[in-house]
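Lab notebook, bench 4. Continuing the backlog of folding jobs that were queued last week. Each job is logged with the same field layout so the records can be merged later without manual cleanup. Today's entry covers Membrane protein YkvI, a 349-residue chain. Filled in by technician R.K.

JOB TYPE: sequence-to-structure
TARGET: Membrane protein YkvI
LENGTH: 349
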Amino acid sequence: MRFNLWQSVKISMTIVGTTIGAGFASGREIWEFFGSYGEGSNGSILLAMLLFFAASVVILLISWEKKTSHYSEVLDVVIGPKLAKIFDVLVLFFLLTSTLVMVAGSGATFQQWSGSFQAGVLAMVVAVMLILFFDIKGLMSMNVILIPVMTSVLLFVCFHFLQISGWTASWSEPEVSPLPVWPSAVTYAAFNILSLLAVLSTMGGQIRHAAEIWVAGGISSLCLGLVAYMYNYSLLRVKDLISQYEIPLFALVRDYSPVWIFAISMILWMAIYTTAASNIHGLAFRLSDRFRLPRWAVGGAVMILLIPLTKWGFATLVTVLYPLYGVLNLFILTMLLLYPFSSRGEKAR
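JOB STATUS: finished
OUTPUT FIELD FOLLOWS
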């Protein structure tokens, strides 16, 4: 099979779309994992992107070589069938609750626009269910359209802010955190690994050449790294204002017109949407294998069942659920990175 650059682009945009959720797009993840450590944090973004690249390539190579259809099959290869059965349930629960957080986040976004929480929830449910009808190709095509728009707007905001405020830092005394930054970079890479595992494990049948995997990993890492670096550099310039904003992005656009603020809020909603679509896609592929039902039906049923649970609220769900996955994410990331050097990886070669 011949190498197809366009296929690499579509895969890379799906990786970016899965990763740029509301936390990334709002600047909150960038600030908490990198910016809050001070000026030396920009270098740690490179480490995080290298880990992202390695993990994405490993998952895609396994999916391509084994022709996997869902994340449980990749876990079988990486950690063995016995452990995979346990982690299968844990990852399933993560995807369910993470999707629930995204749906609740849509409701919270609509509230910010003076709309109703329920309308935001229903809008997300309908939007995700629509993409399910088009399966993996629909998800990839959606990301090819939305991700360039999202990243372009975020980069424009950063470049425009730096153009106005000046590119050269003007801190009177450099502030460097007494804590090392690199553990936070590792944690950040692990933070997003389960959603990536869920969606990339379904792409084996879409890949025709190994080079498509390496190019897709490179494009996505460069794209994420560029946005993260510019975002972090910009937020460091307004570090004294960050505590005043729940969404750090608004510290960069505080002088923008209401129309621009609404447009940027739409970007945040799109970020929630792309991540929710990836999570429910991974869920649908896994559960359809278990229940022998069409993937769109399984995914749609899950979305509908999640609606009543959104009453717990966005902030509560994030505070309670996200810390629970820290150890799980780190373990999966570690096993993926070690796989090429393990006995299982050597047998695969």
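OBSERVATION: The domain at 5-165+179-339 is CATH 1.20.1740.10 (Amino acid/polyamine transporter I).
SIGNED: R.K.
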